[in-house]
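Technical note accompanying the year-one report. For the benefit of new consortium partners, we illustrate the data format agreed upon in the data management plan: each record pairs a sequence with a structure-token string. No post-processing was applied to the example shown here.
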Amino acid sequence: MRLLAKYTAEAKSGEIDDLARAMAVELTVEVPEKVIDRYPHLHEELVAKVESIDSISSNLYEIVLSFSGDLPGTDLTRWLNLLLGNCSMLQGVTLVDLEIPEGLLGGFAGPRYGVEGVRQLVSVPDRPLLATALKPRGAPVSDLQKICRDFVEGGGDVIKDDHNLIDDSHEQFLERVVACVESIRSSESGRRVLYLVNLMGPAEELDRRLEDALNAGADGGLVAPWVLGLDRTRKLIADHPGVYLGHPSMSGVYTRSGGGIASRLVHGTFARLAGIDGSVFVNAGGRF
């Protein structure tokens, strides 16, 4: 069982073979070749294999590496370190695609609901879902309540806190959440509208905030996995029921041109591995 990773890399034609091998070594054992030769089992068990190198255009190549299925584990911290790690500092190297065997996917629960599950929760099987971001930070709670009420009465389906709607204390967070839940529930008129709270705060408070928000009637959370940490996000979702949307804050560090990780992996594959039900993603022109 092997995990296949596809990269694009910028290199001169006479250097691409050496670059591919260097990436395979750097991502797995990070030692000189003579050290690898000292331990023959490293070739078969640890060092990534260069499966193919294909030219895309002048000085741009596609490299496919395969990794032993024993290496990634079930924590996404290890996945990121294995698949890009030190090579993220190489200019022009981008992780663009993954082929994940079923045996590795089985270690992840994936999204609880996904698109179809969210549609079932709000009883909207066919039309586009209508969502909004609750903002701005600094507005009185009474104003945020009115936004919730107006949106629900106008036919909206999902309200998520804005990623900048951050409370300085647990008490302020819970006071705001309770008030917004009350406005939403009192305006639903037989419908169900989802309310997702922003989980942006000290790491040691996140579980408490989410648990208290769910107990107060919220439906889940807005998570920023590239701020919180991808595996911290996975664990948070695994430990608490609900619907979770992924926010792209900081993801541009990974997806901008010149190297990193392709957007479809950031907002698609890795988001799903972390258990996120849907991603807020950057569209043409830089908006959402």
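Partners are asked to follow this layout when depositing records. The mean pLDDT is 95.
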